[in-house]
């Protein structure tokens, strides 16, 4: 067992290394100042830790923001591509419809021209039949004695 004289031989600094344990021997003024310095160091350490956490959170936020921005850009590009493809398909369809209308109009025009040509041909034939292809002899009332008389036709000289 150690005696009280052994503890005194070590001295106050040797016996008490922790400030909390030596508070009674140092006195009330020294204890409060040491405690204040300890609290200031802890507060500074907490502020530094908080600042580091803020930096880490901000870095994570920036990372996520950049990731979301890239995702959004990809989605926008995909949407734009889809819109361009839809527009191109719509234009192609409109172009094909225009071509179809033009073909229909050309066919209709061709039919009209053919119809006009046929009507012109028919009128020409009727005109030729109506004049008899030149002068036609008309029999007189007495049954054929008027052979010298001719009906005047278009483009026919009197005979």
TrEMBL record:
Spans annotated as Disordered: 1-28, 85-159
Compartments where found: Nucleus
EC annotation from Swiss-Prot or TrEMBL: 3.5.1.98
Protein name (database record): histone deacetylase
Domain named Histone deacetylase glutamine rich N-terminal: residues: 31-114
Biased composition (Basic and acidic residues): 91-129
Enzymatic class: hydrolase
Biased composition (Gly residues): 130-146
Signal peptide range in chain numbering: none
Protein family membership: Belongs to the histone deacetylase family. HD type 2 subfamily.
Record-linked InterPro entries: Hist_deacetylase_Gln_rich_N
Keyword annotations from UniProtKB, A to Z: Chromatin regulator, Hydrolase, Nucleus, Repressor, Transcription, Transcription regulation
